[in-house]
Amino acid sequence: MGEFIGRGRKARRCYGFDEIALVPGSVTINPNEVDTSWQIDSKRYKVPIIAAAMDGVVDTRFAIAMSSLGGLAVLNLEGVQTRYKNPDEVLKKISKVSNAQATKLVQGIYVEPVKEKLVSLRIEEIKKAGATCVVSAIPQHAERFGDIAQEAKADIFVVQSTVTTVKHISKEYKILDFHKFCKRMKIPVIIGNCVTYNTTLELLDTGASAILVGIGPGAACTTRGVLGIGVPQVTSTVDAAAARDFYFKKKGKYIPIITDGGMSTGGDICKAFACGADAVMIGSAFARAEEAPGKGFHWGMATPHANLPRGTRIYVGTAGTLEEILFGPAKTDDGSQNLLGALSTSMGNCGARTIREMQSTEIIIAPSIQTEGKIFQVVQRVGMGK
Predict the structure, then answer these.
(1) Which residues are known catalytic residues?
(2) pLDDT, tens digit, 9 for 90 and up, residues 41-59
(3) Domain total for the chain?
(4) How many CB atoms lie within 10 A of CB 333?
């Protein structure tokens, strides 16, 4: 498998969203009659698109709004919301600083320690509104924040880092035992991130309720440039889905995979589901919502790293309300709004009644899908030519 890239060394060809297209089905379905919902453990959610745990995207108000629309938004328990009593003032500073000073400012802001009282308070704010509360922490802090989150009645806990494996090695800090952690947590645990078949298979066996797939594809992430690692999302999703299906056949337990990052349009999201995703997680598209706390700015989760930042602050602007981004009516011509409408229409054209059926859609390698016949859009910088 793979092809030679030099004497005695092979490399496998991998694919991203821009290189593939979906083939319409031989049967088509009314988009209003497809089911886009997905399930984690015993609970089903109307919207299979999750807002990423990024400070420019999710605060308590955004999480409440997302839940009211049938989706999930992840609150970062190690971000500005839990470091500062008045995070809006801090977010305003981040939105005002120049690009040259942004990383340094963010690094300084995140030096402030996380306060456990604020962790509980933020969760309680979401729960008091009757919303589903999803929170996240890195593996080193998962046990500490997991206990607080459970006590505050959070609904789902996410353990997330740039690269996550069951077999992590360190003498510097205590290693999180995922098997023990998932077993003692009384709420669903989502673990990420990974991009390979074997690692996905091992993470599935920890007792996790879902797995996040993706390393470095996010609009504000620079991991691929800084570290040189990552697998394009089409290939990583297909490989992770294969692991999920093998695990299901072997153990009889279906554990969803969530493609995380690299999707900026409805078309990208549709392709992720065709590649095998059960749900997707996005940041930049939601950072453009009027309800997003970043005021049109968006930055990676590893941007504040004190020694080796692997994210940057970008300006995405504000394009519309969260409801318009999810359900329309779209005010833009580039596929960045009415994401659920795009998904249901694509499913209908592919003859898929459910997300599971969408996972069997025929996929072709078609790099020209982005440029064929689009010369006027490219020249005029409209639609797909932006």
Answers:
(1) 221, 310
(2) 999 999 999 999 999 999 9
(3) 1
(4) 12
